[in-house]
Design a protein that fits this description.
binds glutathione, Glutathione S-transferase Yfyf (Class Pi), Chain A, domain 2, Glutaredoxin
């Protein structure tokens, strides 16, 4: 049986769940809002983690490729080489360029954060606008990002559904293709399942095991933050011990119940 260690908070988990639904696979969701408590070993202390019998997979892009390799039905990546390359490119844009902007800004909506550094809102706006332009252009004359519904949509969609919430909306007048696409994905069965998980999560937020005091910024989120000049602010977070790490001697994974057997 496939098990997905999942948090509705995580766009990467949402990507994997949409892929599992798309492929019509049976799977079990293991609620994993506190990554340090999951009983599946990820040395980087991140979700999603997917187990398939004895096999453990980490990293959403790896998981999607595994699923297509092992379960050939309803491939999430197109077989046409050009469409495959485009789907992988949009997945990479979502994981490494959209996520850092939207997820970083979301921290001030739910975590116990120090006040935002000056200029952060403007930097986020400046970074997201060209991505919206590009996505809108990509969707011109196309129902989904690479034509058919694919991994590209599963990767990008979770971020765009959060854009209003973090005060970084696209402009529905200028970006009408994004509006139409968002509605289209939302209306699919997997879109409905995804949205229900998000709404349930937020409804019960106070009961969720989410660490609001110490943040795991993750590789690309931290890169974006530092590259935009907010290093002094971040240094203070490190000094105040408000950062959770995926590597190093204070690696959050070492708190996992699975750590002893694997460390
Ligand atoms: N490259 C990974 C990134 C996964 C990731 O960053 N997960 C975040 C949640 S969105 C996480 O588990 N962070 C650790 C934490 O919150 O403690 C993937 O694509 O699966």
């Amino acid at each position: 049986m496939i098990k997905l260690y999942f948090s509705a908070f995580s766009p990467y988990c949402r990507k994997v769940r949409m892929a599992l639904e798309f492929k019509k696979l049976n799977y079990e969701i293991v609620d994993s809002n506190d990554v340090a408590k999951i009983n599946a070993w990820n040395p980087r202390a991140e979700v999603p983690v997917l187990t398939d019998g004895e096999i453990t997979l980490r990293n959403s892009a790896t998981i999607l490729e595994y699923l297509d390799k092992v379960y050939a039905q309803h491939p999430v990546f197109p077989s046409n080489p050009a469409a495959f390359a485009l789907a992988k490119e949009w997945e990479l844009v979502a994981d490494t360029m959209i996520d850092p902007i939207i997820t970083n800004m979301s921290l001030w909506k739910w975590a116990n954060m120090n006040p935002k550094p000056e200029g952060l809102d403007e930097a986020a706006r400046k970074a997201i606008d060209p991505i919206y332009d590009r996505l809108n252009q990509q969707l011109e004359g196309s129902e989904f990002i690479v034509g058919e519904l694919s991994a590209a949509d599963f990767a990008v969609y979770p971020h765009i559904t959060g854009a209003n919430f973090v005060d970084l909306p696209f402009d529905p007048g200028k970006h009408s293709n994004i509006s139409a696409w968002l509605k289209r994905v939302k209306a699919t069965e997997l879109g409905r399942i995804d949205m229900k998980a998000i709404l349930d999560f937020w409804k019960n937020l106070s009961a969720q095991e989410v660490d609001r005091d110490r943040i795991n910024w993750g590789t690309y989120r931290l890169e974006w933050f530092l590259a935009n000049g907010f290093h002094e602010w971040f240094l203070n977070e490190v000094r105040e011990d408000k950062v959770l790490w995926s590597v190093g001697p204070k690696n959050n994974a070492l708190n996992s119940p699975a750590a002893k057997a694997n460390a």
